[in-house]
Amino acid sequence: MDSRKKIRILYFIIAVLVLIIAFIAGSIIVIRIDRRNASGIISQAYYQIKVSIFEAMNKDNNSIVFLGDSLTDYVTFDEILRNPNIKNRGIAGDTTLGVLNRLDEVISVKPAKLFILIGTNDILFRRSADEIIQSIRQIISRVQKESTDTKIYLQSLFPVNNIQFRTNRPLETIKALNEKIRTTAYEMHCTFIDTYPLLLSESGDALDVQYTIDGLHLNGKGILKWVEYLKPYVNE
């Protein structure tokens, strides 16, 4: 092998190594960005648009508010339950910390009832169950302090399906968080709604595939079953 061919091979090897290093460095940057987003939400633009819409709306007091992430955001509670007094304050991609950041607007409505379902995106960002429940307790505490007549309903997280899909949310973490949510509801005098078993598969190890589009979000059938389950709490 002549020297020029050796040099070309060496350059090729160096180029490949540079690409590998660049890829690894880029992955680290992405991870750092994602971890930073755990202090807020997944999509800053969508979050800001939704918050600005909520803030521009009329503040009708004594309403029924549903607060959460995409699982709440995607549901037309007022239409399904035929109740125009319902307000949807879900934002896709939101976390407990994102909710805390925008809680002033929710409290300003002085809702008669507040249904909270939040935390699954915190799990995506690898926040521990203890960290998440601390934020949930802060949400409850602020509402109880600043809107004293609001009755709070705290929902457990739904199961996910990591068998047919990839949700990046371990089922064991969801179970652990749900137990803390249950305890928190009792300790802070909220109504606990255990929605976790509602949509489980027969084997009990995943969100039933008949109720989901991606292992995390509910399809129409799943949404209707969930909302029907909530109806007595909304109407009581």
Describe this structure as you would to a colleague.
This protein is 53% helix and 10% strand. It has 236 residues and is of the alpha/beta class. The chain has a 5-stranded parallel sheet with strand order 2-1-3-4-5, sandwiched between helices. Helix 9 (171-187) links the parallel strand 4 and strand 5 (191-193). The radius of gyration is 22 Å and the shape is globular.
Spans of at least 5 consecutive residues with low confidence: 15-39
User: How does the major sheet shape up?
Assistant: 5 strands, parallel
- Main-sheet strand order equals 2-1-3-4-5
Overall pLDDT confidence:
87
- Please tell me what the overall shape is: globular
Instruction: Report helical residue fraction.
Output: 40-55%
Helix/strand order, N-terminal first: HHEHHEHHEHHEHEH
β content, as a range? 5-15%
Brief digest:
Helices cover 53% and strands 10% of the residues. It has helices at residues 3-37, 44-56, 70-73, 77-80, 96-101, 103-108, 120-124, 129-146, 171-187, 220-235; strands at 64-68, 86-90, 113-117, 151-155, 191-193.
Annotate the secondary structure layout:
Elements (H helix, E strand, L loop, with lengths): L2 H35 L6 H13 L7 E5 L1 H4 L3 H4 L5 E5 L5 H6 L1 H6 L4 E5 L2 H5 L4 H18 L4 E5 L15 H17 L3 E3 L26 H16 L1
Parallel strand pairs: 1-2, 1-3, 3-4, 4-5
Helix pairs in contact: 8-9
